[in-house]
Specification:
26% strand; Glyas_Bleomycin-R_OHBP_Dase; 6 helices; Glyoxalase_6; 2 domains; globular; 2,3-Dihydroxybiphenyl 1,2-Dioxygenase, domain 1; four-stranded antiparallel β-sheet; alpha+beta; six-stranded mixed β-sheet; single chain; 231 residues; Gyrase A, domain 2
């Protein structure tokens, strides 16, 4: 297995290329003008990736953008190969007048992001098989334990992870969304959530995550890679 990179090392290595580190993946967006151009972008980045495309690259093709994700499919962390590929893809697109960008502060509806569903549970091992079966999900690469997250095998739906509870809780929801945003997008997203009527429940773990609630108490977290550990 290749040597894995720390969160900070991965983020620092690609931020100036318009990529952002999100939950063990590198993600960027390529603005385009049509579906035809989007498919041309996809073909170009696949060619630039070469033999690594099938194992590391995903492309979400839309008429106005192509969202690119680099993440090893057989291990849970990034390596120097992913960093090299990010630089290679950005260079290949610059050569044809296109750019890779995180879409922060550009007037588009939102930045690149990854959404997760979090389920609070007293017995994670007991409920995990149900969610895996009902969603048609599978184990995350390199994480197949009875309490580990589960993921959409075709990469369309949000990952689901399980948060250990130590006692029953009846006064709040037990399923919430985690919205992982670029670290430099977090202040903008926080301000938007508060302006839209949300309230800050806790910032005690910031900048790893901030907990918000709507006016009825339903919670969501804005998360980043920062502040989780030294890596």
């Amino acid at each position: 297995m290749e040597r894995t990179l720390s969160r900070r090392a991965a983020s620092d290595a690609i931020s100036d290329q318009g990529w952002r580190y999100l939950l063990g993946a590198l993600r960027t967006s390529v603005p385009v003008g049509s579906m035809v151009q989007a498919t041309e972008v996809a073909a170009r980045v696949v060619a630039a990736c070469g033999s690594d495309a099938d194992r590391r690259l995903r492309a979400d093709i839309r008429p106005d953008r192509v969202v690119l994700t680099l993440q090893p499919l057989d291990q849970p962390a990034l390596t120097a190969c992913d960093i090299d590929l990010a630089h290679r893809l950005s260079a290949a697109l610059r050569n044809v007048g296109l750019r890779t960008e995180p879409e922060i502060g550009t007037g588009v509806p939102r930045s690149v992001q990854i959404v997760e569903i979090a389920v609070d549970a007293l017995d994670i091992a007991a409920i995990r098989p149900f969610w895996k079966a009902v969603l048609g999900y599978t184990d995350e690469a390199g994480a197949d334990g009875p309490k580990d997250p589960i993921v959409d095998p075709v990469g369309q739906g949000p990952a689901m992870w399980f948060q250990q509870m130590d006692q029953p809780r009846q006064d709040r929801n037990r399923i919430h969304l985690d919205i992982c945003v670029p670290h430099d997008e977090a202040p903008r997203r926080i301000e938007a959530a508060l302006t839209a009527g949300g309230r800050l429940v806790s910032a005690s773990h910031a900048p790893a995550f901030w907990v918000f609630a709507d006016i009825e108490g339903n919670e969501a977290c804005v998360t980043t890679w920062q502040g989780r550990d030294d890596s």
